[in-house]
Write a structure and sequence with these properties.
five-stranded parallel sheet, 14% strand, 19 helices
């Protein structure tokens, strides 16, 4: 029999009840503290956290009103609003026990009690308390995340003319429900812009749902986006809402939208056009009210000409189009970004702030940044951790590389070649650790595996 590590406090003026309760509960709970005098409750609670408190309703033989129980219940709740309290009560006090529950008690046990009933009540109340604590924690995390989201342009660090145009478009488009298509190379910050659009929108207090379309298998496309009903397929053991439904009243961000197979694009178009989805295995249509933002590093117009992307879908998603410049096209922002991330990672790893020499900064500004901001962020993080001197040291290429290789690395603007090189470099730099490489690239492990297979990277 496993003994729970939870602590329980029993408060009763009857010493025989305290002994009997302690002997019973000690078989199942690691620590059972008993008190005859309720005036000791505050001191005892300050010294120990209790998963549950068993509290008598009356503490003097002459008293039957339950007023003492109400009083001490209020005192306990004042000390800890989340305290779990179960009342000991006689049959005649049943109505008072119900009133006490309205004041915050969790349950009651009749005297004389049945051991099984007492143990079941204690276990159930502790379990319910744990669930509430988890729920409360998740709510707090969500509130913190929402507060962080609402900081304007938190990571849109820029002063360049190229980004000024982006800011203006964000401010104009955010207040509308127009569909937005964000274009740009890998690592230019497309999801950051999507979140900024959400933060400045009328839907900012609701969900921002991000979906990486590059990681969803074709067979799971409809289930992931539109949901499924129990029994719709082998592993469908319960009804599951899709991403469209979960983003209700908020923003749905579909990243890497170019990866959706042609045969499934029509289903996405229908959902966007009609604002309704039908779960797999279901027949009832579900209306959805959301703001759609999509992004890709591919040239959708070329894909339309090639026949691999539907023209009507492109027209539906790009009511407003935002093209993010590559980092090499906004050199004025490179020192700002380096300073921002150097400060961020110095604080994260509790290290002294370090500077960048003028010569190193000149090299960084000249560098072509094939991985864009994502690469810069990774290099700054590594430099903060590994630099021994008071100045940050960056290794932009291998020591044997020429100056041209250190500065340029590429003589191409082909996005596929740049992406392949960046993936090869990340896998190499992290010595084959896929988790670390994926984190540095800002994508999931599944997405990285897909790209490695696409480019035959080992």
């Amino acid at each position: 029999m496993t003994i729970s590590d939870k602590a329980i406090l029993v408060v009763d003026d009857n010493s025989e009840i305290l002994v009997a309760t302690r002997m019973l509960l000690k078989q199942y709970y690691k620590k059972v503290v008993t008190l005859e005098n309720p005036h000791d409750i505050a001191k005892t609670m300050s010294e120990q956290d209790f998963a549950l408190i068993l509290l008598d309703m009356n503490f003097t033989r002459e008293s039957t009103s339950g007023a003492e129980g109400f009083y001490w219940l209020k005192q306990i709740k004042a000390l800890d609003g989340d305290a779990v309290v179960v009342l000991f009560t006689a049959y005649g006090d049943l109505a008072m026990a119900v009133d006490a529950i309205k004041l915050g008690a969790n349950d009651f046990v009749l005297k004389p009690w049945q051991n099984e009933k007492l143990l079941a009540t204690v276990a159930n109340c502790i379990e319910l308390s744990e669930q509430r604590k988890k729920s409360k924690k998740l709510t707090q995390i969500a509130q913190i995340s929402m507060a962080a989201q609402n900081k304007p342009f938190e990571h849109l660090i820029a002063s360049s003319p190229a980004m000024e145009q982006v800011f203006q478009t964000i401010e104009k488009a955010a207040k509308t429900d127009a569909n937005v298509l964000i274009l740009g190379e890998s690592g230019t910050g497309k999801e950051v812009v999507a979140r900024e659009l959400h933060k400045q929108s009328l839907r900012k207090d609701n969900t921002f749902m991000s979906v990486d379309m590059g990681t969803i298998a074709s067979s799971l496309f409809e289930s992931e986006l539109f949901g499924h009903m129990k029994g719709a397929f082998t592993d469908a053991k319960a009804n599951k809402p899709g991403r469209f439904e979960l983003a209700e009243s908020g923003t749905l961000f579909l990243d890497e939208i170019a990866n959706i197979p042609l045969e499934l694009q029509g289903k996405l178009l229908t959902a966007i056009q009609n604002r309704v989805v039908t779960p797999v295995g279901g027949s009832k249509q579900i209306e959805v009210d959301l703001r759609l933002i999509t992004a890709t590093n591919m040239n959708l117009y070329d894909m339309v000409r090639e026949g691999s992307f539907r023209q009507d879908l492109l027209y539906r998603i790009n009511t407003v189009e935002i093209t993010l410049p590559a980092l090499r096209d906004r050199p004025q922002d490179i020192p700002l970004l380096i300073e921002f991330y150097a400060d961020l990672y110095s604080k994260k790893y509790k290290l002294a702030c370090k500077t960048v020499s003028d010569k190193m900064m000149a090299d960084l500004v000249k560098y072509q940044w094939p991985g864009n901001i994502r690469e810069l962020q990774h290099l700054v993080e590594r430099a903060v951790i590994l630099s021994d001197s008071t100045q940050l040291q960056f290794q932009l290429a291998s020591p044997a590389a020429s100056t041209q290789e250190r500065v340029g690395l590429f003589d191409t603007y082909n996005l596929a070649e740049i992406e392949q090189h960046t993936i090869e470099r990340a896998v190499r730099d992290f010595k084959g650790n896929i988790s670390h490489a994926a984190k540095a690239l800002g994508i999931t492990r599944a997405s990285l595996y897909r790209k490695m297979e696409k480019y035959d990277v080992e």
